[in-house]
Amino acid sequence: MKKLILLLLLSSLSFAQNKIKPRILPKSDKVVGNVIRLDSFPTKLIKPRAVDVWIPVGYSPKKKYSVIYMHDGQNLFDSNTTWNKQEWMADNIAYKLMDEQKVKDFIIVGIHNIPEIRFLDLYPKKTLNYLSKKVKDSIFEDSKKKGVNITEESFKGDNYLKFIVEELKPYIDANFFTLKDAENTFIGGSSMGGLMSMYGICEYPDVFSGAICISTHWPGMYPQENNPIPNSFFEYLKTNIPSPETHKFYFDFGTETLDQYYPQYEEIVNKLFYDKGYSTENYKNLRFEGENHSELSWQKRFDIPLLFLLEK
Predict the structure, then answer these.
(1) 111-122 tens-digit pLDDT
(2) pTM, whole model, 2 decimals?
(3) Please, are residues 123 and 117 in contact by the beta-carbon 8 Å criterion?
(4) Burial label, 39 (beta-carbon count in 10 A; 0-12, 13-18, 19+)
(5) Residue 139 domain-assigned?
(6) Containing domain of residue 88, as a range?
């Protein structure tokens, strides 16, 4: 394993002009496999941030690996270092499924969020086009009252996706043993990350073939009565859902804490996808009674989308 890691580090020299210096994170009792940290990944599109690449036990140049790009990367693997001492246990769950030969071999690329701008990075920007000027102005004005001064230009979701597709993915494919085609490339996340994963596969259907959208935050901002924002997502989806012949979508939601605001959208979302020709073979929208909006809840069911998208 150490020799393989060294090969990875040496191969990164091809990107020396970007000053990327991979480092293997110290072993942790919470991590199965290894996490390679790419500190402050160079980008011209968004604010630089760390990227973690998880590679499984037995990672080998004799194999080629599918790739899942995931948001909120600092919460995926090690609860020793997370803000709330919770984690997805993405490494443990992924390795167990691979070890049992239930799924294809894959790696996980976890893109860290920057808390102060996370919302602006993960909001699907083009959906703003489906809101009236009056509604947008009221949203921006309300934000000002809460001490946050934003405009339409503040939303960086399109640049965030472009960063993944045009800057990060080429680096990952050049320096790790990956399968580069859309059939083996996925995008996933929770809450706002669920929205961005849905948006990512719609915007780049030739890059991603599957999306994991856990506890998708359909309210968009904060929950409120007569919220106009969810409908902007649904109007966007009507004309942008990619072909069911080559794509899969996984959605789910709980019923407690923030997730209590999501069940009301279940049938609307179902109809959108069934009207586009999706079926239970390539689309899921699952309800988890009693589960809340937390990594502890998401870790309980992360195996389901992995099996759905990567099953052998």
Answers:
(1) 999 999 999 999
(2) 0.94
(3) no
(4) middle
(5) no
(6) 2-127+157-219+231-310
